[in-house]
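Let's sit down with a protein and look at its sequence and fold side by side. Which protein we use is up to you, so please pick one and set it down. Label the sequence line and the structure token line clearly, so we can match residues to local backbone shapes. Go ahead whenever you are ready, and we will take it from there:

***
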Amino acid sequence: MKEMNVNGAVVQAYPLTAAQRIHYYTVSACNRGELLNIATGFYIQYGDIDFETLKECLYDGYRKFESMRLRLSPDEEGNLMQYLVPTEDREIKLVDFSHWREEDAHEEMKRWSRIPLEMNGGPMNEIVMIKLPDYYNGIYMKVHHMTMDSSSIISFYSYVLNLYCYKKFENVQPPKLPKSYLSQLKLDLAYEQDSPARKKDEEFWMQKLEEPEPIYTPFSSRNRLLELREQMHNPNLRSCYATGDIEADIQVYELEDDPSRRLLAFSQEHRIPIAVILLLGLRTTFSHFSGNEKDVSVKNAVARRGTVLESQSGGTRIHFWPLRTVIEPETTFLEALKIVQAKENALLRHANYDPIAYMGATGAHYNAPQGTGYECTTLTYQPMSFATLKGQQIPEMNFKSKWYSNGVAMQHIYITVMHRPTDNGFSFNFEYEKNSVSLQEIEELYYYLCRAIFRGIEDPNRAIGEILDWM
């Protein structure tokens, strides 16, 4: 912590955490500030929304959520620092799209989502109250990823909506107060100062480098590793580029109600987390595309919200870690799930370590060409989704949620799986580099991912090799 003079005011400023440095590293690499925009909308079909009360609730949310008042500025040495402003009193506008075509309104908000939030001491979020056609009303919010992640965003929405309903309806309990972002930040920074916990985590990850070199497996029938081997005249190359043209869009697939229920029932019956089933489905799909390769790595997004303080303090806490498994074809689907679960549990115990430091150590150890890696996609499973809001604050009403593309991505494909607010079914969101990855490849990946998962859950004693043969 250090004191900084910002526009004549002395503030207590803190260095970036490892999770923030990941984002800073990626945005510095592409020099496109909009990369770190997360833009979402949440809308309720309720025509009598009191927007003045909603505005009051939003301002209260700013007061209670410290990370919504976070600022980023360089110090005198040029190091990016973070600090809080005491109040947030910017105007919160109301935009009336009720006479627009709804798709045009969403296109306009997508345009807003592609305007960068600058890291120069200015606000790190924008909120607009929205009227849509058919009496859908709600909130559009754009936040900077170095200050908020999806869990933080949903917590903020939940708090504001709960507070609104507490003010406007009977028999509604007031929302629980969030925890202090600064308290959690200080713990994170203390961990990084050669703490025993950090040393233990570092030992775990450095031991991974004693294993044989991983191998890149493709996300479609186009094998980019084989193409790169030919280009570089290196038949032994095992890593590949994970990004291309960074202009991006989002393709969403909705898993139907019945298979969604079957997936949830299987998870509950066998006590296997949904994330583990998705990871096994992905690694089986990548194996299929690479000639049944047994050694497969998937990049896993870890939220690191195991304690009450971590889960309720806002901010950004995502670390990205490779989950590598070697699964023999005779292994049953259920046995494979337990292998993936054990690997993920070990990873989660050591997820606080700096992923950028490990990524650099991995590339150097295996002498991988700069810019290459071993994971073709990243998976985020969001159990705390907008679906958790449905019925908690305003029951018996229709909801809509929206994730607006910022137009830029630094990975060929980034998969986010979340629950629909309407029926708790699954939405598969594929953010993809639209000039490097075809829609056909996205459709192919989703098709085979579902085949791998449902071939397994319909008979968990079925061998992985048998599932691969059927794909």
Observations:
- Residues 439-458 form the longest helix (20 residues).
- Residues 34 and 116 are 4 Å apart (CA to CA).
- The domain at 2-185 is CATH 3.30.559.10 (Chloramphenicol Acetyltransferase).
- The longest strand covers residues 37-45.
